[in-house]
C-alpha cells in the first residue's frame, strides 16, 4: 500500500513540474508576443533594413570678384548586383569577358583576367553588392554606363551607383586656412567651420537592406528623402590680391630664412579682408599654410604698439608733438632693468614727433612713464578706449584673446608701464593691430574685420552682412590728424623710408620685437619684424600689416624685413585699382551702330522685336536660338548652336534666356552685373555635372 502511495505521489509531482514548466513556456510566449512584441518587431526590422544619411552637396565659397575658391565635386562608388535576375547565366558568360576588358582599360588598376575572376567568383558566391570601384569621377561613370551588362540599366544590368561629394579648393593653398574646413567633433576652422550650418545643407535619407555577409545595399535606386543642397558663401577675399600677397610673403620668407609670416590687407571703410596669408616653414625654403597666425596667435607686437601709446597720451594732453625729450644716452634704467634704443640718436634733445618716426624706445617710455607714473590706470583705461584688450568677435573662429596687465594685477611692477608703452608685457594678434591702424586711416571709426559679405541660396541672397562698427570714435579729430602726421613722417623721414619710393604716399609704423623663448626669456636672440600702415596716405583705401617671425639672415628690423613686402603688395594693388588713382576716371566709349543688334536669344522673340521696330533683317536659320550681326544697313540673324549634351555657350545672351538654357541643363546659375552675358565660369562644350553652379558675368 505504501509503495502504491509513493508511486502515485511521484506521478503527481512529475505532472506538477511538467505543468509549471508548460505554464512558464506559454506565459513567456504570451509575453513576447503581446507585451514585448513591438520591441522585438522593431529590432528585427533594424537588423534587416535601416535608414542611412545621404549627405547634401555643400555650398560653394566665392571670392568677392566671383571666383570659385571652394566647391564640392561629385565622386561615385560603383557596385554591381552580379546576381540580378535579368542577368542570366548565358548573358553573363557572353558579356563578362568584354566587361572585364573595359573595366581594366578604364581604371587600369587590375588586369582583364583579374576582373574576370573577381566577377565570376562574386556571381558564384551569390553576391548582390560587389564593389567595382571607389572614387569614380563623372566622366568615368558616364563611360562605365556604356559597358556591356551595365548598359542595361540599374535593375536589368545590376549597376548600383552611390554618390559622395569631395571638397576641392580650385586655387589650392591660397587662403586655405581662412577658407578652412569642417569635421564633426573637431574645432571648426575658417569659413567652412563658421558657416557650416549654411554650407552643409540638410541631409537626406536612404533605405538600406542587409544582405549576405553583413553588407548593406540600397533598397531603391533613388533616395527616400532627398537632401537639400547647402547655401553659397560670398567672401570678401580677392583672388588676385591674395595671390600677390602670398607670393610676396613667400619670397621674403625664403630670402630671410624666416620661420613664418603673415600678410593681411583690409579695405579701410568697410573692414573687408581682401587678402590674408599665413605661411609656416615645413622644410628648408618650403612654406605652407598650417595655422591662421593672423587670427589665432597673440604675441608681443613691439614698436607697432607705440601708435596706441601716442594716441592715449595725445588724447589726454600729456604732451604735444613739438615737446622735446633727451634721448642722447640711448638707454634708460627702470628698477635696475635697462631699456635701449636700437640705434643712437645723435641729437641731445628731439621732439616727440622725432621719437615716433625714429621709433625710440627710450623717448617713448620716458614720456609715457612721466605722464602716467602716478596714475598708470589712466593709461590702461586709455588703451581700452581704443578698443584694445578684448576680442573683436570676428566672423571666423579661433580669434586669440589679447592681453595687457592692469595695475594691481599679478605681475604688475615698476617696469610694466615703460615696457607696456613700447609693446612688451602684453599680447595682441596681427589682425587686432591692423584694426587699430585701420581705425586711424578711417578717421577714428574702428570697424570689425569682415570675411563674409553675403549668403546666397540658388542665386538669391538670404543674408547680408553690413559693416560692424566696434568703436564709433577712438579719439578726437585733432588726435587722429596728429596720428596721420606721425605715421606719414615714419615713411618720409624715419624707420620706414624704404617705402618712400612708391609713386603714391604711404603711412605706417615699423616694429621690431624680441620674442621670448619660454624659460630662457630674451636671452636667446629671436625677433619678429613687422610693418603696419595704410595707403594712399592722403586718401586711404587699404590698410595692411606684414609680420615676419624669426628672420635669420642677419636682418631683423621691421623696416628692412617686413616693409619691402608691404611695398610690393601695395604697389601691385595700387596699379590695378583705378579708383584710387587721383584724377583718373573710367572712360566709356559709346559704340554707335546704324542698326540695332539684339542680344542672342530665342528666334521668334527676336523676329517679333525687329518686326515691331520695322528693322530690316535677313534670316539664315530656322533654329530655336539665334545671334545677330550687322550686314551693311540690315541685321543678319544666324543660328546660335546651343548644345543639349554639354555645357551650353550662353555668351551674348540676356540673363533670362541664359538661365532658362542652363537650368534646363541641370546647372545652377549665379549672375553678376547687368546687360548681356560676356563670360561664363564653365567652358562651353565640357561635360555637364548636374547640380554644379555656373557663374555668369554681364555687362
Automatic annotation (TrEMBL):
CDD domains for the chain: PASTA_Pbp2x-like_2 (cd06575)
Keyword flag Coiled coil: no
* Gene Ontology MF term list: carboxypeptidase activity; penicillin binding
Q: Does the keyword Membrane apply?
A: yes
- Localization per record: Membrane
Q: Which InterPro entries match?
A: Beta-lactam/transpept (IPR050515), Beta-lactam/transpept-like (IPR012338), PASTA_dom (IPR005543), PBP_dimer (IPR005311), PBP_dimer_sf (IPR036138), PCN-bd_Tpept (IPR001460)
Which top-level group of life is the source organism from?
Bacteria
Q: What are the UniProt keywords, alphabetically?
A: Carboxypeptidase, Cell cycle, Cell division, Hydrolase, Membrane, Protease, Transmembrane, Transmembrane helix
Q: Which GO terms describe its cellular component?
A: plasma membrane
Q: In what residue span(s) does the PASTA domain sit? A: 641-699
Q: Mind telling me which residue stretches traverse the membrane in this protein?
A: 12-30
Question: Which Pfam families does the record associate with it?
Answer: PASTA (PF03793), PBP_dimer (PF03717), Transpeptidase (PF00905)
What's a GO biological-process term for it? cell wall organization
PANTHER family per UniProt = PEPTIDOGLYCAN D,D-TRANSPEPTIDASE, PEPTIDOGLYCAN D,D-TRANSPEPTIDASE FTSI
Official protein name in the record: Cell division protein
Amino acid at each position: 500500500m505504501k509503495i502504491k502511495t509513493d508511486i502515485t505521489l511521484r506521478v503527481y509531482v512529475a505532472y506538477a513540474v511538467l505543468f509549471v514548466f508548460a505554464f512558464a513556456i506559454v506565459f513567456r510566449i504570451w509575453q513576447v508576443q503581446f507585451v514585448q512584441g513591438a520591441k522585438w518587431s522593431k529590432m528585427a526590422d533594424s537588423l534587416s533594413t535601416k535608414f542611412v544619411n545621404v549627405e547634401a552637396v555643400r555650398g560653394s565659397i566665392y571670392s568677392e570678384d566671383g571666383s570659385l575658391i571652394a566647391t564640392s565635386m561629385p565622386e561615385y562608388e560603383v557596385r554591381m548586383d552580379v546576381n540580378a535576375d535579368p542577368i542570366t547565366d548565358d548573358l553573363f558568360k557572353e558579356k563578362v569577358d568584354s566587361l572585364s576588358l573595359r573595366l581594366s582599360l578604364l581604371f587600369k588598376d587590375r588586369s582583364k583576367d583579374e576582373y574576370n575572376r573577381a566577377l565570376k567568383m562574386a556571381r558564384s558566391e551569390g553576391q548582390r553588392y560587389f564593389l567595382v570601384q571607389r572614387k569614380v569621377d563623372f566622366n568615368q561613370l558616364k563611360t562605365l554606363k556604356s559597358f556591356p551588362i551595365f548598359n542595361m540599366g540599374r535593375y536589368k544590368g545590376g549597376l548600383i551607383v552611390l554618390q559622395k561629394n569631395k571638397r576641392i579648393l580650385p586655387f589650392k593653398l591660397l587662403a586655405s586656412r581662412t577658407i578652412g574646413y569642417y569635421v564633426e567633433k573637431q574645432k571648426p576652422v575658417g569659413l567652412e567651420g563658421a558657416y557650416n550650418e549654411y554650407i552643409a545643407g540638410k541631409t537626406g535619407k536612404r533605405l538600406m537592406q542587409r544582405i549576405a555577409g553583413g553588407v548593406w545595399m540600397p533598397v531603391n535606386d533613388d533616395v527616400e528623402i532627398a537632401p537639400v543642397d547647402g547655401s553659397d558663401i560670398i567672401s570678401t577675399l580677392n583672388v588676385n590680391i591674395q595671390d600677390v600677397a602670398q607670393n610676396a610673403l613667400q619670397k621674403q620668407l625664403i630670402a630671410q630664412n624666416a620661420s613664418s609670416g603673415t600678410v593681411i590687407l583690409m579695405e579701410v571703410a568697410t573692414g573687408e579682408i581682401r587678402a590674408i596669408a599665413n605661411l609656416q616653414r615645413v622644410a628648408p625654403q618650403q612654406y605652407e599654410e598650417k595655422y591662421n597666425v593672423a587670427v589665432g596667435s597673440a604675441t608681443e607686437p613691439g614698436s607697432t604698439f607705440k601708435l596706441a601709446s601716442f594716441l592715449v597720451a595725445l588724447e589726454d594732453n600729456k604732451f604735444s608733438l613739438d615737446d622735446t625729450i633727451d634721448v642722447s644716452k640711448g638707454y634708460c634704467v627702470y628698477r635696475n632693468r635697462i631699456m635701449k634704443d636700437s640705434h643712437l640718436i645723435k641729437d641731445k634733445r628731439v621732439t616727440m614727433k622725432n621719437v615716433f618716426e625714429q621709433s625710440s624706445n627710450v623717448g617713448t617710455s620716458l614720456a609715457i612713464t612721466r605722464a602716467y607714473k602716478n596714475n598708470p590706470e589712466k593709461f590702461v583705461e586709455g588703451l581700452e578706449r581704443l578698443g584694445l584688450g578684448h576680442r573683436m568677435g570676428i566672423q571666423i573662429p579661433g580669434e586669440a584673446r589679447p592681453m595687457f596687465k592692469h595695475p594691481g594685477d599679478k605681475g604688475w611692477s615698476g617696469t610694466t608701464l615703460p615696457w607696456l608703452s613700447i609693446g612688451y608685457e602684453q599680447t595682441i594678434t596681427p589682425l587686432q593691430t591692423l584694426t587699430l591702424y585701420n581705425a586711424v586711416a578711417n578717421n577714428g571709426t574702428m570697424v570689425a574685420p569682415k570675411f563674409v559679405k553675403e549668403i546666397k541660396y540658388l542665386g538669391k541672397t538670404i543674408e547680408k552682412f553690413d559693416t560692424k562698427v566696434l568703436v564709433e570714435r577712438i579719439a578726437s579729430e585733432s588726435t587722429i590728424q596728429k596720428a596721420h602726421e606721425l605715421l606719414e613722417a615714419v615713411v618720409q623721414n624715419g624707420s620706414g623710408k624704404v617705402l618712400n619710393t612708391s609713386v603714391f604716399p604711404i603711412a605706417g609704423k615699423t616694429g621690431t620685437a624680441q620674442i621670448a623663448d619660454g624659460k630662457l626669456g630674451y636671452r636667446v636672440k629671436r625677433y619678429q619684424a613687422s610693418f603696419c600702415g595704410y595707403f594712399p596716405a592722403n586718401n586711404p583705401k587699404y590698410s595692411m600689416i606684414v609680420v615676419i617671425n624669426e628672420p635669420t639672415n642677419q636682418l631683423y628690423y621691421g623696416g628692412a624685413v617686413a616693409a619691402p613686402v608691404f611695398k610690393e603688395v601695395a604697389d601691385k594693388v595700387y596699379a590695378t585699382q583705378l579708383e584710387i588713382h587721383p584724377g583718373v576716371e573710367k572712360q566709356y566709349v559709346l559704340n554707335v551702330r546704324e542698326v540695332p543688334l539684339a542680344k542672342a536669344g530665342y528666334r521668334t522673340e527676336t523676329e517679333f522685336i525687329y518686326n515691331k521696330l520695322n528693322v530690316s533683317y535677313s534670316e539664315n536659320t530656322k533654329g530655336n536660338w539665334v545671334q545677330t550681326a550687322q550686314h551693311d544697313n540690315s541685321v543678319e540673324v544666324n543660328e546660335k548652336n546651343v548644345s543639349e549634351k554639354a555645357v551650353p555657350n550662353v555668351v551674348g545672351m540676356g540673363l533670362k534666356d541664359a538661365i532658362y538654357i542652363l537650368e534646363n541643363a541641370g546647372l545652377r546659375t549665379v549672375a553678376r552685373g547687368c546687360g548681356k552675358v560676356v563670360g561664363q565660369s564653365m567652358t562651353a562644350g565640357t561635360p555637364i555635372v548636374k547640380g554644379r553652379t555656373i557663374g555668369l558675368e554681364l555687362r
